[in-house]
Amino acid sequence: MARLAFARRPWVALGWVALASYIVFAAQRLDFSVERFVVGLDNAQRFLGRMFPPEILQADSMVRGLTESLEIAILASCAGIAFSLPLGVLAARNLMPAWVSWPARSVVALCRSFHPVIVAILFVKAVGFGALAGILTLTVASVGFIGKLFAEAIEEISLKQVEAVRATGAPFASVLAYGVLPQVMSRFVGFATYQVDSNLRNSTMVGIVGAGGIGSTLFAAFQRFDYSFVCAILIAIIAMIMVGESLARVVRSILGIDARRSDA
Amino acid sequence: MSTPAALAIRGLTKEYLPGKPVLRGVSLAIGSGGLTAIIGASGTGKSTLIRCINRLVEPTSGSIEFEGRDLVKLDRRQLREARRTIGMVFQEYNLVERLSVMENLLCGRLGYVPAWKAWLRRYPAADIDRAFELLDVVGLSGFEHRRADGLSGGQRQRVGIARAVMQNPRLLLADEPTSSLDPRTSVDIMQLLSHLGESLGVPVIVNMHDVDLARRFAARIIGMAEGSIIYDGSPEGLTDERLRAIYGGEDWLG
Amino acid sequence: MPEPYSPAAGARAWHRHSRSERLARLMLTLAVLAAVLASVRSVEVIPEFLLDAPEQVQDLLVRMWPINVGFYPSGVHDALVDTLHIATLGTLIAVALALPVGVLSARNLIRNRLINLAARLILVATRSVNSLIWALLFVAIFGPGALAGTLAIACRSIGFVGKLVGEALEEADPGPIEALHAAGAPWLSVLSQGYWPQLAPTFWSVLLLRWDINIRESSVLGLVGAGGVGMALDTALNLFQWTRVSLILLSIFVIVILAEIIVTQIRKRIL
To answer: What was the ipTM of the complex prediction?
Structure first.
């Protein structure tokens, strides 16, 4: 049976061979070796032993870090959503002339270009250590993500519905409100909740470079080899995110959005 | 006609591609009442003609006089004001699918209500009353909360018509309103258009390709071929020979 | 279902949302406002830092120009290639692990609720932790270098890919599956002939998307010692060699764009 399948499509077999050879090649280039891995596993065992049981060594630092991360995520999400709504509309090529959509798209693309950590480093240099750098970083990340997807969603709408609203003599804002937004609102809410979730995750790590939140507590714990504390913090982060995901589901149901396609 | 025309089109030309006019200097005067049907083969410009009237398509040249103003020369704000008084019904209904029937009806008032109020769905009570009235008239009482995408084709077109009438229009345009509907529903829709036009006292211009339907409901028929009007008269005067000239070919005449 | 309107004195009222819906929306708005206000109050903003921000930014930009292109062959190229390998290998490992875990988490495929839960827990845990944090962990276990980075990428991606795979499987059309079961096909055949064809487009799409994201992620893992161009970036930052920093940022930007182009082209052809 397998022989027949491969005989029919020899390039499938070729594909697997190519994949296998790439894996071997890349692994070699990256200096992987079985013995390194085995030594590592041995290490890992000892490591896990030191991580469990988890201990909260500095409760107030941890609580402060977690709340700060939460605050960063909340404010960055609000600012990001607030900016990306108009920016996404401006970036939609089917609604706006080129001299408007092109700069808007460029701004959105720029916001997406760099990993939040890099953006965080730059903001820390600009506004100093602390939560503000984190908030600005994640606002930029949000605008880049939501703005792009929102503009793409708008470009996929049926213009017939928009045409009908325009034909009633409605002003532009009403054409937007009745013709464009109803078609994309549920997708926008989907992107926004995804981004809130993403911001929550990223807010836990921008602290590593000084932009506030639990990341700095975590990094410090690593450097002091307090692995049981590290474990406790990781568990807290996972718990916080799980709660965030459940809340997102609740919000979506309140707003009446189909939560069919969710996100990771 | 002794009364002045409500709509006077003079020398209307439209070229999508330079040198290939879809409308060749069309001139037409519509009276202040009655249903006028425009018939013709596909691509002869009847849809373009109707869409030039409210400038969903921009004419290349010519003038369209409506209520003392040349629609072609209006700026954006004036055009919006003028569009308020021209209601349009579309072939594919063009309802906002995700909104409720009531919200679709209220779209008809968007030209009259400030944007922020429209956003917050705060319409004057008179508008809401009128909406409910119209729902009764088009036979959709109790449908106000239904989402537009949950309706059948015929029901959607009724909403489309009600939306157009909500504008308190002084002209009703319909671009192939029955082409996506079955024969029975088509008759219902044409009856509705005809009846509403009469009770509102406004002229109705309908694009259609069903000649029998046109004969049955129109007081005046305009036949177009290749961008020009080649027949303009009563349904009785529409002989087979004239139909051949409009549509070309013999077989379909039966 | 919205509540019916209440007619009042002959006039019929209309509300877009029912009373309960309006209440819920109001509570949501209030909750969000409260959260925002609380956050704004407790976030520390040092005004001096804010005020001299434009100056700082200008200073930074001046130092980063001109871009030290000469440094590229010796200092950046190899690291950049390493980054690509880290991203690709990491994605491949993740996919290999995410498929079985995703299958285990699909409630229509595996009926054992305990296994479903365990699989979901693994998926949630791996994607809740950022790849940078995984990198910290793996550097501590396996030592600095690309191995830690690759495993970090793989770990984070398992949750991402696995969750979308699980959801796609749960939404699969049961028709062909029933037909296969009725024909007496063994379980593995049901998977490969019944579920896989439905899963395949989503799977490739998710794979490409995650690879694209991983290129971006791999480029910064070096900041904590997990290999790739991030290590060169870390060195340059620590030594304040800003023109090298701008070169590295530019190279990262370029490979991210290249990856996006590749992904868009592949999508056009196979999806």
So the answer is: 0.89
